[in-house]
Amino acid sequence: MRRIPLLATIVVLVWTWPVRAWDEAGHVIVTELAVRLLGDNAPDFLKTSAARARLNFLCAEPDRWRNLKLAPLPHINSPDHYIDFELLALYELTPQTMPPFRYDFVAYMARYKAAHPDKNFEYDASKDDDHSREWPGFVPYRICELYAELRSSWRTLNTYEKYRERVSEAAIENCQQDIIYLMGLLSHYVGDCSQPLHTTKHFNGWVGDNPHGYTTSPKFHAVIDGGVIDAGRIRSQDLFERLPSGLRKIDETKLFPEVIAYSLEAFGEVEHTYQLEKQGAFRPGSDSFPEGKRFVEDRLCAGAVMLASLWEATRHDPGIDAYREKQFQTAP
Which of 18, 228, 279, 281 has its CA 20 to 30 A from that of 68? Predict the structure, then answer.
């Protein structure tokens, strides 16, 4: 009973944390689990403690960008953390019919809005000072774009290593640091898409018709992002045995559909998330808290598997940068 004040303090903190993706601890767990999945397949420069520490720091960097309210930053950053799948229907789209490129997606929606001026698109411009909330979100596009950037960096490194006698060790190291940076950023958004509340308009309390009486608390998001992780003392090393032995097969020619399919797995857990909340599974000390903790752990593991799979796919047969190769071959 002496611990009740401390537990009460934890609960208050859980329900007052700001909305963001997995809190930093969650993103670090996803990253550490993904590194574990790479195992001996990882190149030597990724096996150093410095590289692991850098990945753990970078995986939360896009959330740090949220701390600056200068409009150009939230305008481009905020929508990259989510996709509200339900809102696609407003544009007569489905996840399977979304264009695979970001600006094609925006252009389609803009044209659709112009053609349906009387339709309610569930958007209030008066509450959107940084012009970031008009669209359903772009996180699948951000994942694919970072995948391509990381793929390019592996190709650059591969080219430099092939012509190592023509480049400095500093150039090799810079390539490696670029790879670590992009791996860290990719970790963030892949982790976001494993969290069900980043795939739904019900991202922070149920909105609209609510026949099952799910919570409408605007603080619910923070419970899933960090509250359960903190209260349940979830740590990556405790989840190692829960990881599968293999990775997902990533077909690069179908990258966008595969990212959408992965995001839909989390979307399929949205109502389950609210059901768990209703039965008290996310309240520390409740009889059903172990079930809620297990649910969050499963979602963290799902993010780690997808992340490791994408990391591994980016460096598979990276090829050669033809432009740089020509430079090396023709230089005196």
Answer: 228
